[in-house]
């Protein structure tokens, strides 16, 4: 393959030689048009993937948690006969359908980029990640697609218990989808169980289990799924708080706010603990990422400080205006105040991740995690003081924290993915070597198209979801006074149904 350079000159990839006008040729050790021409294209391809994956993950982060929340609501409805749970189920089901649909559509777009912008990566890593992606479709996607229709439209046709099974299968499908996608991503972070073929491809080794359950996968799976549950909990809590400010007697608003705050109070500390374990695993397998997260340009042989805030200065290899706690980083990462910690000075500079981005995205994620914990503890204090449903300041704080889960998960993924740079497969395949030989204008054109379409289509969908959330849950359902079981879930009031039976 040759690249035209202008004025009759070409660069020949196969030989690495510069072909001049008139047939003359010569070595081109300093002229690599693929690298030169692709610098801008590579940056645009990375921006495009970052944009689409960030936009996409907003919806799965919500739908994974919301599917489980719907499962819990329907289970409580079937067990107690309390129509409030049925009202909330019907209320959030419409929102789930929209979020799920937008998540599927935005995810399909991402997969095409593997064959366009990142075709070299697909060629080299395809034998390993291809089957895992196929398993996600064959198990999770088919399971979700098969039962979603029953979940959305079958409540009057298949019976309540069978409908509950469909809800459980959709919730299970969202978890299985996260399982396979996170296994793929974790293998790229901590690759194991592979062999390098003669053509440079990553080939599966004798055991697929070593690929699927790679060293970082269990930690990433737990941390990400809990993050999805917390994201949903804070959205539900914000909606409940919004309606409590308008009418603190609304039973649906009271119930959803209470359930969400219990989730925040119980699960937020678990998430902080899971995040700590994930960080220790990252220190073992991707030390450069942790060095960037901590802002440790230099090694600390007698205990490393915890830098709370500062401005990373990669040119001077220091953190300017650092506010730090002496030796606290060693205590957190090694559980020893005087434990030595290596810095980026022990790693070749061409393997350093972008410290500024990783440093700040990590702090945003951690700060929001502790803010979630703080709101959960505040809600416990409100319960204790009997002011849980009539403390406007708490409700306004819950509304302000509504988007916090989305911001936290995006910040977490920025930390994970940017911290892996400059590699796509950590330590083995560089990002610059993974991109397709495309021209920058072609990548730029598709990036602009994605931005326009995404904000138009998904912006409209998000606006409609917010419009649905702005309406309070309506009390259409109550328990059947004759049998203590719910009459139905179609929105016809039990009073009408009972009168119909009597007639």
Explain the overall architecture.
The protein has 503 residues and is α+β, with helices and mostly antiparallel strands. The protein has two domains: 31 residues, no CATH class; 376 residues, no CATH class. The protein contains 14 helices and ten strands. The strands form four sheets. A four-stranded antiparallel sheet has the order 1-2-3-4, with no helix packed on it. The protein has a two-stranded antiparallel sheet with strand order 5-6. The radius of gyration is 26 Å and the shape is globular. The N terminus and C terminus are likely disordered.
Calculate the terminal CA-CA distance, rounded to whole Å: 83 Å
N-to-C series of helices and strands? EEEEHHHHEEHHHHEEHHHHEEHH
Q: Estimate the mean pLDDT confidence.
A: 84
Task: Tell me the number of helical segments per DSSP (H or I, 4 or more residues long).
Answer: 14
Residues in helix, %: 55-70%
Q: Rg, please? A: 26 Å
Q: β content, as a range? A: 5-15%
Report strand order across the widest sheet: 1-2-3-4
Spans where pLDDT lies below 50 across 5 or more residues:
1-38, 477-503
Estimate the global geometry from the Cα principal axes: globular
How is the biggest beta sheet arranged? 4 strands, antiparallel
Subcellular location: Cell inner membrane; Cell membrane
Membrane topology: Multi-pass membrane protein
Family: Belongs to the cytochrome ubiquinol oxidase subunit 1 family.
InterPro entries: Cyt-d_ubiquinol_oxidase_su_1 (IPR002585)
């Amino acid at each position: 393959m040759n690249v035209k350079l202008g004025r009759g000159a070409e660069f020949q990839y196969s030989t690495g030689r510069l072909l001049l006008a008139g047939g003359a040729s010569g070595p081109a050790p300093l002229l690599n048009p693929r690298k030169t021409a692709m610098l801008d294209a590579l940056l645009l391809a990375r921006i495009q993937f970052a944009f689409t994956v960030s936009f996409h993950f907003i919806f799965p982060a919500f739908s994974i948690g919301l599917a489980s929340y719907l499962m819990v609501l329907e289970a409580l409805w079937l067990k107690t006969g309390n129509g409030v749970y049925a009202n909330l189920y019907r209320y959030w089901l419409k929102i789930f359908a929209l979020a799920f649909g937008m998540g599927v559509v935005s995810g399909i777009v991402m997969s095409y980029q593997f064959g366009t912008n990142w075709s070299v990566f697909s060629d080299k890593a395809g034998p390993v990640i291809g089957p895992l992606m196929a398993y996600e479709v064959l198990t999770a996607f088919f399971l979700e697609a098969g039962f979603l229709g029953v979940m959305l439209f079958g409540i009057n046709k298949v019976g309540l218990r069978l409908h509950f099974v469909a809800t459980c299968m959709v919730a299970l499908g969202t978890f299985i989808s996260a399982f396979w996608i996170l296994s793929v991503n974790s293998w790229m972070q901590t690759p194991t169980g592979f062999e390098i073929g003669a053509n440079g491809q990553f080939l599966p080794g004798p055991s697929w289990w070593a690929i699927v359950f790679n060293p970082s996968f269990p930690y990433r799976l737990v941390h990400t799924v809990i993050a999805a549950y917390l994201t949903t909990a804070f959205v539900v809590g914000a909606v409940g708080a919004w309606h409590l400010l308008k009418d603190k007697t609304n039973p649906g608003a009271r119930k959803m706010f209470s359930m969400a705050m219990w989730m925040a109070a119980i699960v937020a500390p678990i998430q902080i603990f899971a995040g700590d374990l994930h960080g220790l695993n990252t220190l073992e397998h991707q030390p450069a990422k942790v060095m960037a997260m901590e802002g440790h340009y230099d090694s600390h042989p007698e205990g490393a400080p915890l830098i709370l805030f500062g401005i990373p200065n990669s040119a001077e290899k220091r953190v300017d205006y650092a506010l730090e706690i002496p030796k606290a980083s060693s205590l957190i990462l090694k559980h020893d105040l005087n434990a030595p910690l290596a810095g980026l000075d022990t790693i070749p500079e061409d393997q350093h991740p972008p410290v500024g981005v990783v440093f700040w995205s990590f702090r945003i994620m951690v700060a929001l995690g502790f803010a979630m914990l703080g709101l959960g503890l505040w809600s416990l204090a409100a319960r204790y003081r009997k002011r849980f449903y009539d403390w406007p300041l708490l409700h306004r704080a819950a509304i302000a924290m509504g988007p916090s889960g989305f911001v936290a998960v995006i910040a977490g993924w920025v930390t994970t993915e940017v911290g892996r740079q400059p590699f796509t497969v950590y330590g083995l395949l560089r990002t610059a070597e993974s991109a397709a030989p495309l021209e920058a204008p072609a990548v730029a054109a598709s990036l602009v198209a994605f931005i326009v379409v995404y904000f138009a289509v998904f912006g409209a969908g998000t606006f409609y979801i917010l419009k649905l959330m702005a309406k309070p849950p309506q009390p259409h359902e109550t328990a059947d006074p004759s049998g203590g079981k719910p009459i139905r879930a179609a929105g016809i009031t039990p009073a009408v149904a009972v009168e119909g039976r009597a007639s």
